[in-house]
Amino acid sequence: MHPLPAPLAPLTHDDPGQLGDYRLLARLGSGGMGTVYLARAAGGRTVALKTVHARIAADTAFRTRFRLESDAARVIGDRYGARVFDADPLAPTPWLATEYVIGPRLDEAVRLGGPLPEALVRALGAGLAQALGQLHRSDVVHRDLKPSNIMVTAAGPKVIDFGIARALGDQRLTSTGAAAGTPAYMSPEQAGGLEHTPAGDVFALAGVLVFAACGHGPFGGGQAADLLYRVRYAEPDLTGVPAGLAALLARCLSKDPELRPGTAELAQLLGPGPAAFADALPQPVLADIARRAAAVWQDPPPRLPVPATAPDTVPPAEPDLSRRRMLRLSGAAVVAGTALTAGGGWWAWRASRPRGKPAKTGTELAAAPQASWWSDVWAPPVMPEPLWVNGTLAIADRTAIRTINTDTGRQLPAYYKGYEDRWRIGTDGKIFYGLGAEDSLDKAVTLCVLPQRSVEPGKEVFPPFMSLPAYDGTQVLTQILCVDGDTVYLHAKAASGGQWSVVAASVKSGKELWRQPSTAPKPPAPTTNNVKVRQPAVIRLRPVRDGVLLWQRLERGDDVRLSLHDTATGAERWTTTVTAPGATPDQPATDDEHVYVGAAELQALRLQDGKPAWSFGAGRDVGRVPDKQRRYGLPTVRDGVVHAVEGSLGIVALDARTGTERWRETPPEGTVPNRETALVATAGHVYAADTQGVRAVDTRTHRTAWRYASQALALTTDPTAGFLYIREQSRLTALPIT
After folding, report:
1. What total number of domains does the chain contain?
2. Which of 226, 270, 369, 676 is an S-S bond match for 125, by CB 3.0 to 4.6 Å?
């Protein structure tokens, strides 16, 4: 066996000396995408610090992928992956610091010590099955499991590199028909460009175990096209696999996903392994782990000198963080491991980048606008839309409410700590209101004015100006529904009796004006790790001409109750119920005459009496729409035109008064629209989310003008329509659209 290379390689002459708070010591690996360094913080913590080449990071699609890896890293956790300590994903050269996993990659371990004994293969497989199960329980699939993405440590295997992991059913950032992954370890369905489910990860895991047991993959090597063909149509080569494992691995490698076992069953069939994973490791692998551990605390190799033929260069200084308008996020970056892989992740990224060539339109897409700024802010599970306060954005990020300067994207740190729930704040556009703390001495529902300036830590408690003792102030799911002029609208629980109501109160007098009984929030459902997510009742309120429109999701099923109430008394003028599965808009689409609902049909209800004014789409071919999903997406209305996504076909525009068709979009080939994200309409474009990003549809040509790669959860614009704001799971981006 050839010896493995030294754990640490010297820094080159042009490697930086420090990134963030970390001093670089040596190189752990380098490839076409970037470099991984061994680094140490001032406090002594040693990390693997991953960087990405600036020329690659400049690609919008890759930046999006880089950010989205963090989701999978958090899901898999420290036991099965590498802990993330620190990151600066928005730097010109993005970087992140993770736990330095001490051990070789699986392909290195097999090369060093030979094929692993059956007991160790079983222990390895059981640990990896549990790791995948952790991902799958959170509806995430890895999509690129292979020997070089698995670290062998004394405590067990760890999975690294989530560059192409994604949520189940989420095709964003993947072109239609593109096979993303590493050909030798793909599932047949993945090789065919189809949906990769948890069963696909099981197929890949079986291939990894074949390699661990006999030193070769189940479908050999060679060119990618040959490998993809064998994966889809040939029987696996199990030569050398122990007899006790062959039948199980053959089942996992079935071409039919339904015949493969799940991760829990597979872990049970493989185990139990040895009492201690390290006890079963071959001696050469144990020695390599010890060698790597010792190297961490030895003097690092000296930096390489400037080559004689190279011009004198000076490593560029790190840009001023204050000018980059960023927050360094602990735990908000990717799991990396100890080496970059130039295989599956890079290949899949290249294969899945939006090309911007709508084949059916005969034109090429223009370049998307460059983002004016972006800000890393984690999106809450409900109500991710920002609020507008005197030209600034207020946005929730699960730890606090932060304000963002719309000109620069600069955040005020730790602003309004204790107001991490978006539904507990509101504004009339000028003043920022918040509900009093639920653990305050006053058990009533209270309202306070939040100062529009930086708040010192420990001074986030603001005196209330309104107290409503009839309602339970200890209830965290109390909502501020809207602030309109002198009236604040709340959803609150009675102090006694448990009845929830929509409440109108006067800001000036501090007195209740009226109340209307409403639905209660659902009990929070446990998620993975038994964490309960707080979620208020789905109730929306919007002032309209001649009243206040309430939009309430009923407790069961897909029904939504709409009602119009007198502004002064709360008296109900009319009510109706519609069936509308899926997302509830943050603000129902209305104009002076109608409220517009997208569901099985696109419908206009008269605000005067709640009766249907017109309905569009009955019996119409809207493409492929799964059962129990809305056929028409969340609509928007502007200048007398209603826009909505029509099934899988793209945007349709209707006359708001009559419901007659004005135009239909001709979308680029491969576009899969998102009907659950509300559209944004401006004078010249309609902006819509799809599986590849956000596209701008020209209202004159009815074609896509450009597409910006993202995974949008919500689209909004400012009062002057100067920017389009794209809210993703961990970022808010401002695109200029004027």
Report:
1. 3
2. 270
